[in-house]
Amino acid sequence: MKNTRLCTFWEYLFLFLFGGTAYCLLELHWRHWTHWSMFLAGGLVFCIIGVENQKIRWEWPLVSQALLAGLTITAIEFLFGCIFNLGLHMHVWDYSKQPFNLLGQICLKWSLLWCGIGLVGVIVDDFLRWRIFGEEKPHYRLL
Predict the structure, then answer these.
(1) Alpha-carbon torsion 19, 22, 27, 28, what sign?
(2) Is the pLDDT of residue 65 over 70?
(3) CB of 106 within 8 A of CB of 78?
């Protein structure tokens, strides 16, 4: 008999580790450095995007899924910024010189970029769930 809770635990642990690693590698490529908190943020974001992705499945157009993922990333970035930058004074990032910023932790420019990264996250989550965990093969509609 298959223990679905145990399977779900291992699946989400894998997705967390994958998301954390992928985000740190993206930051290393883009900024040439990262911070350990970004591993936690990346893993958490990838898991949340996966949960959202599982709830809405194929009903939502891919553009809407990308917007939701971008909002999710922005929210986690704001939360982590408030904790690590404002609360713990770790100075991981600072958007205070960017237009349309909120407390220097998030800004419009990066939130729009997060929508693009979120789109990739949605597609990668679907692919991993299909190829590794045997879930439904991805199919999308753009609009």
Answers:
(1) positive
(2) yes
(3) yes
Give the Å distances, CA to CA, from 140 to 35, 75, 94.
Answer: 34, 25, 36
Specify the residue for token string 């998030």: 106
- Between CA 45 and CA 16 the distance in angstroms is 8
Pairwise CA distance, residues 110 & 5, whole Å: 36
Torsion angle defined by CA atoms of residues 36, 76, 29 and 100, in that order, rounded to the nearest 10 degrees: -130
Residue 100: HSE in the Cβ half-sphere, 13 Å Cα cutoff: 6
**Residue 23 corresponds to which tokens in the numbers above?**
């985000």
pTM above 0.85, yes or no: yes
The pLDDT tens digits of the residues spanning 8-64 come to 899 999 999 999 999 999 999 999 999 999 999 999 999 999 999 888 877 899 999
